[in-house]
Design brief:
Elements (H helix, E strand, L loop, with lengths): L1 H13 L7 E5 L4 E3 L6 E9 L9 E7 L2 E12 L2 E14 L2 E5 L3 H4 L2 H7 L9 E2 L6 H17 L3 E4 L4 E3 L3 E8 L6 E11 L2 E14 L2 H11 L1 H25 L1
Parallel strand pairs: 2-13, 7-9
Antiparallel strand pairs: 1-3, 3-11, 4-7, 4-12, 5-6, 6-8, 10-11, 12-13
Helix pairs in contact: 1-3, 5-6
């Protein structure tokens, strides 16, 4: 994370002396999740100025969800039963991560720069928050986490999702699943030429729960004790009501 932050600072220091070749925008300025939300598609688009460097080699767009700390548990089968073994508290890791590009990432940017920018799930980095674990164990736990996120459609990569039109315009679509976490999302747009970043834009995309779900969500997070007691009281009341109805019959 620190290396990425330092790289971004250096990037901004370098870009003003050059021309930032990208102008970007999104089809939505926020995502509102209601009770009937089943997912949607976000359109990301922009323009490329080929004047300063000539036509770019490619464009990469990254949509990164809010960070979270997770506990990754290793399971092993003993006597026919799956049992939790070692636990690896790690973080921060994005709850959602989509990376789309106009060409394979390996063809656009060297591995060291890609790792510094955190582009691609294979370059994700997380820190062990507690305990001890070897590099091999941490790598295996992180790879398992990425596989689970891919299975839930919360992590995705597509090297052909960015379409460049006449070397000046580009567009891409990213699928937002129903189970996406709420919070502040960050959009990063990169233009590459000869392995170098020649254009960069960033922005934010708020994702919020609205309606009754918002009220319940706020209560669950900010007043968890009261929310839990209310749930227990509601369950007791409903159980008592059903018992009364059946007694009358």
């Amino acid at each position: 994370m620190l290396s990425r932050a330092l790289f971004i600072v250096a990037l901004f220091a370098w870009l003003p002396a050059q021309a930032n070749v990208l102008v970007t925008d999104l089809s939505k300025d926020q995502i509102s999740i209601r009770g009937d939300f089943t997912g949607e598609t976000l359109l990301l688009f922009g323009a490329i100025d080929p004047g300063p460097h000539g036509p770019v080699d490619g464009v990469v767009v990254v949509l990164r969800g809010p960070g979270e700390n997770v506990v990754l548990r290793e399971k092993r089968k003993k006597m026919g039963i799956w049992i939790n073994q070692a636990a690896y508290p790690m973080g921060p890791l994005p709850g959602f991560l989509a990376t789309v590009s106009s060409a394979p990432l390996s063809a656009l940017i060297p591995d060291d720069k890609r790792r510094a920018l955190g582009i691609g799930t294979d370059k994700l980095e997380a820190f062990l928050l507690d305990g001890e674990a070897s590099d091999t164990e941490q790598k295996a736990a992180l790879e398992a986490f990425v596989r689970l996120k891919h299975a839930d459609r919360l992590y995705a990569e597509n090297p052909q999702a960015v379409e460049i039109i006449d070397e000046r315009l580009f567009r891409a679509e990213i699928s937002l699943p129903a189970g996406m976490p709420v919070g502040r999302y960050v959009t990063d747009f990169y233009a590459f030429k000869n392995g170098r970043v020649v254009g960069y834009r960033t922005g934010e995309l708020p994702v919020d729960i609205v309606g009754a779900g918002h009220i319940l969500g706020e209560a669950a997070h900010k007043q968890s004790l009261l929310y839990g007691l209310s749930g227990v009281a509601l369950a007791v009341f409903m159980g008592w009501g059903v018992a009364v109805i059946f007694r009358r019959r």
